[in-house]
Structures are given as C-alpha cells and as structure tokens.
Amino acid sequence: MYLKSKVLTNEIEKKINNLLDKMTLEEKIGQLHQVGPSPVGAFDIPEAELKKMLETGRITQEEYELSKTDKILDKNEDKIRNGEIGSFLGLSDPKRINRLQRIAVEESRMGIPLLIGCDVIHGFNTVFPTPIAESCSFDDELFEQTASVAAKEARAAGINWVFAPMLDISRDARWGRIAESMGQDPFLAGNYAERKVRGFQGDDLSDNSKIAACAKHFLAYGACEGGKDYNTVDMSLSKLYDVYLPPFKRAVEAGIASIMTSFNDINGVPMTANKLLIKNVLHDELGFDGVVVSDATAVRELTVHGYSKDKYAAARDALCAGVDIDMNSYTYFDCLKELVEKGEVQIDNINEAVKSILRLKFALGLFDNPYCDFKKLNEVSCTNEHLALAKKAALHSTVLLKNNGVLPINKEKHKNISLIGELSDSISESYGCWTIYAKDEHTVTLKDALCKEGVQYTRCYGVKDELNEDEFKTATENADLIIAVLGESRHMSGEAHSYADISLPESQKSVVKRLKELGKPFICVLYNGRPLCVPEVDQSADAIVEAWQLGTKMGEALADIIFGRFNPCGKLTSNFPYKSGECPSYYNHPNTGRPAATDSDHWTCKYDDGRIKPIYSFGHGLSYTTFEYSELQIEKAESYLNVSVKITNSGNYDGYEVAQLYIHDKFASKVRPVRELKGYKKLYLRQGENKVVNFILPYSDLGFHNDKLEYVIEKGDFEIFVGTDSECELKSEFTL
Ligand code: NOJ
What we know:
Blueprint: H1 10-22, H2 25-31, E1 33-35, H3 47-55, H4 61-68, H5 74-81, E2 87-89, H6 94-107, E3 115-118, H7 131-135, H8 140-156, E4 161-162, H9 186-201, E5 214-218, H10 237-244, H11 246-253, E6 258-261, E7 265-266, E8 269-270, H12 275-285, E9 291-293, H13 301-305, H14 311-321, E10 326-327, H15 331-341, H16 347-363, H17 377-380, H18 384-397, E11 399-403, E12 417-420, H19 446-451, E13 456-458, H20 469-477, E14 481-487, H21 506-518, E15 522-527, H22 535-540, E16 543-546, H23 554-562, E17 627-636, E18 640-649, E19 655-665, E20 676-685, E21 690-698, E22 704-705, E23 711-712, E24 717-723, E25 731-735
Parallel strand pairs: 1-2, 1-10, 2-3, 3-4, 5-6, 6-9, 12-13, 12-14, 14-15, 15-16
Antiparallel strand pairs: 7-8, 11-16, 17-18, 18-21, 19-20, 19-24, 22-23, 24-25
Bound molecules: 1-deoxynojirimycin (NOJ).
C-alpha cells in the first residue's frame, strides 16, 4: 500500500493533524475542490461547443464568458489565496504552475501546495503508442519504462499527478475509449496495472522524476451498454469481481496513490455515489488507502442521472460514498459548508478526505519543494533515450495481421513503390487521443519516413472523402507495389467517440475495391484507435499492418518493419470482429449450451449473417518467421503447475515471439470462459534456434467468484493450451 511507503511516517501524520486543527471549514472544503481550465475539465473546448453548452444549460453565462477569454484560471488566483482550491487539472505550462503554487504556498494562510493533475495517458512530450497499441507488445518491462519516462517529463513541467493508468477492460470496440485501454483480458490487464503503477510512482513519490498515478475508471466503465460512452452498466457482482476488478486490485497492491471513479452507474447506482464499491470493496476489501477523485463534473451529474435530487444531495452522496475530490463540478465548493452547518454531512467525513489529500501532498514532497525547475525541462524531455524508447515501443506494438509474403518489401524486386492515403502525412494522426503536450519536432510521419527510402507519396484520399481519380492514376500507373494507409482519424476514437459502425468509411472501402481491381500487390497499413471490421481489406490486401497510433516514432518504426529491419511481434489484445453487430466480441466468453462449430450450423449461438470467429482474434499477430510449438508438458507441484513447451524458430528470420498459455475449466459450478489467458512469455529466437519455455501456473489462479462473492478453486478437469494465439491447438489436460 502506498501509505506504507517510507515517506509517510508518524511524524508526517502529526503534521497533518496539526494542519487540520488550524484549518477553517472553508479551507478544508478547498482541499476537496479541483478546478480545470474549462467547464468540461482538462482541456479547452471550441467556442461553438461552449455556446451549445450555454444554450443547453450545462454552463452558466459567467462560466461561458470566462472560458471564452481564458480568464477562468486567473479568476481562481484569488480563490487559491483564500485556500479555496486544493488542486488543478489540465495545466501543463510550468511557469503558470509555478505561479499558482507560489500563491498557494506563499500567499494563502495555510500555505498548502497544490496537486496538479493531468491526463498524461501515453507519454507527455515524447508520445508513446496509445495504450491499446502498447498492450499488443505483451511486454511488461516496456509498460513500466514508458510510464517512467512519462512521469519524468511531466514532473519536470510541474505536474505531480497523472490521471493514468486507465484500467478499463473493454470488450466492445464500438466504445471509443478502447483506445485508452489494454484490451479485453483481465490477466494481461493485471500485469499492465502493476507495471504502470511502478513506472509512474517508483518507490518514492517525492523523487522529482516520479509522479502520483491514478487508476481509472472505477469501475466497469468499459462495460457501458452497447459500447456507448457514459452508458449504464448492469452486471452480476461475480462478473465484476472476475473481470473488471482484477486490474484495480493489482494497482492497489502495487501502491497506487489515487483512484478515479467512473461516469457510469452500476446496477442502478452511479459510481460517483457508489458507497458499496468505493467504501466496502475498494477501501475495506482491497485495502486502498489513497485519494479518490471523481471524474470531471460527475458529482454535479448525479442529479442528471436522477440519483441525487439537487446539488446539495449530490455533494452529500458523493462525499459520503468516499469521493474525496470533486473534479471541476464546483458542487463540494458550493454546498458542503451549508451541509455541515445543517448537520447533513459530518465534519469527520470532510476531515478524512482532507487527510488523505494532505498525505498525498506530503508523499509527493510538495511541502518541501512545490516548484519545478522549468529551465531544466528541455534537458529532461524528448532526450535521445526517451526517443529510443518511443521507437522500441512503436516497433513492439505493431501487429502484422496478414502477410502473403509481400512483406518485408524486397527493394530489388519492387522499385516503384507508391504510398497513398492522407493519414500517413500527418503528425497528429500518428499520436492518437490525449496528446496535447506532444513535441512535434521529433516526429517523423510515415510519409516522410518512406519517402526517404524512395517511396512516392500521393494523397489520393482522406479519411472520408472520395478518391481523387487523377491522383490515383498518377499514384498507381507506374507502381509495382502500393502501400495504402486506411483507417480512422484520431478524433474517431477516445472519449465521447463511440461508433455504431466500426467498419471502414464507404469511401475507403471503395479504395480497397479499386486497388483489388488494379491487380497490383498492395499492402494496407491501418491507423486506428479501436479494432475495426475490415473483411474487405482482409480479402483483398496482400498484407495488413496494424499500426494503431504509435506516437513520436510511428513513421520510422513502420518503415523498419515494412523494409524488414525489424521483425514484427505484436499480438492483438482485442478481437477484430467481421461485423459491427458482432460486438461485444471477446475470446474469453463463457460457453453456451449451443456453441456453433461452423458458420452454417443451425440452432446454435451465432448470427445468420455473421461469422462464428472474428477475423483476427485475441493473441493473433504474425511474424516474418514461423514458430513451432512442441513437447507440451505439465508437471504438478504442491501449489502450482509447471507447464513447459519447446518453441522452435522454423523460418528465415530472427524474431520475437509471445508464447501464450490459456486454460479452460471444463466443468464448474459456474459456466466458465471457453479460454482464459493465464500466462505469456516473450522470447527472442534466432533462425533455427529453439528454447524450452516454462510457465508457472499457481493453482490459486484457477478460481473464480461464486454468487456469494467467495473466490473458489474447484477441483476437476482443466485443459491447458499453449501457442501463438488464443486459437492455438496444442493442448494437454490435468485434474486438480
Ligand atoms: C474525463 C475522463 O473520463 C477522464 O479520464 C479524465 O482523466 C478527466 N476527464 C480529466 O480530463
């Protein structure tokens, strides 16, 4: 737990109590009040959108005027002086941050420094692959290293708190925020959670290269009905415990300093007021001892849910459920004083929240030094080391979905290579969502990287506009190989970007058709924040490279892969369904009484107009070489199973492989998933080389939660599968 960290001593607890004794009620409430630069929270929004918010009553005339003129923050300087603000979000200008810290520390009565929270989701100045992309690396060390670099750069800018990692399991690719997640598997998510916390926080938050992390969104935000952002969630508690809670549990065990509640309701109770899940489960059961912050304006939205009858009830419901900080809804600020004075909220509730916020400020060392040395920012950010890591991350996150041998491109054979598609010619499209702090000068687009190697670029089409026939003719006439960049723009995934249809825009489908008709070999490179339904590309392209949004080093990494200087090794962490209507599509679904064996089966669990298998399933990802799995052996020890397998690189390239282990509990008192990932190992094998890989599978990993929420490990028969993806067939069995 983070409270056990060496920084938080009894001495500090005394200081906290001393401060608390001296604080007025207003000052205490101030600590619970977090303010952002715009009415929606962390980022500025266009004036037209502000106007709409004003018209629909979401913001007041005063908020509208202030946001328009960027005065919303200046107005807050007096409030900091009065001790009425405890934290900010969405600030990244180190000079401004230092100015605000100075006011808090030198001009307010209590001199309490500010928490400065920020959405540093996949890098700060150096941009790493989006989380969905990075998860495909199956590389625990990388998860930690990229978080560590992000922490270093952000802290140098005066930010001391990141709203990451996002730990929402997402099984529905219609949900735009799948881009920010690590996909659909709780086992992988658990490792990801632990490594991210370590990377951001290290062992000592006062180290000025470390930062407080915030696991979000608690809980089951990714299970929003129909993949529609902010939507309701209705699910059994046992499923919640087996699938959605595990990454948060691992984050808590790793010492996460804070947790953000989610926008959704679960079984009728909005998470912002969900006492059962915040107090009983998160604090009491998991032992979380850090700060709980609401999501942006979510406290005020409790009234919109129809849960709290007015803003006073909303403030009371959220605080009493255990939400310490109100993010940007001004509801605690407006209501808590009156609620305490009327006896509707106990001062103890407020004191507890203030204490946990002060602990975090002490743990971060802010009372000793609240300022950043922004002159050093340039030395710290986008260093060669950081850029090299960005390149490594981009290389390892790319997934080769299909290849009939055209990749890697043989420059001797293909002398006239043509690149088409506007996405390849944009720096910001290389980044994906949440990258407002990126430093563009280090970014090379795919277009620039390939043109350097003699490839000809012609725009031909954008994301949604029609094909320019003249340009298409020029681009393809003399080409002997075409690289077509297809997919989504960065604004088609991320928050509030859910789509009912996740296939390619019609105009891009027709580009694929035209390329097919042309009869020349073509490679498709996909830019996207979510799994897409791309059957037409799968049927027509000679190779498909899933490039996601890989960050600062996107172009260079893809060029290395395309020309064979790096052998791709990424594996999908989400299914790619055939049709949008097949969502949610996840490999680890429970069995039914009528599973379908073929697409034409009748009276089985399937769509008449769909496919029983996704186009690409979880764990899928090709290499330029081939790996053979053999000699699967299982040995039972007292508390674990030792599973070993021999892996041979049987192809013509050296390369990495991610070996995956799945289980299937054949009979249980609760229907079990058809397969569940329980181990993975990433290894490097030279051509012809083989290695025996060992997996330790603790029996304690074989259980599940029953309806009484007891974790049970039932005796019986299990199947073990080991191989290159979730459909691997090499199998053995054992009885527990
Ligand atoms: C809303 C998002 O849901 C959350 O992830 C983010 O951290 C906050 N806004 C602050 O920007």
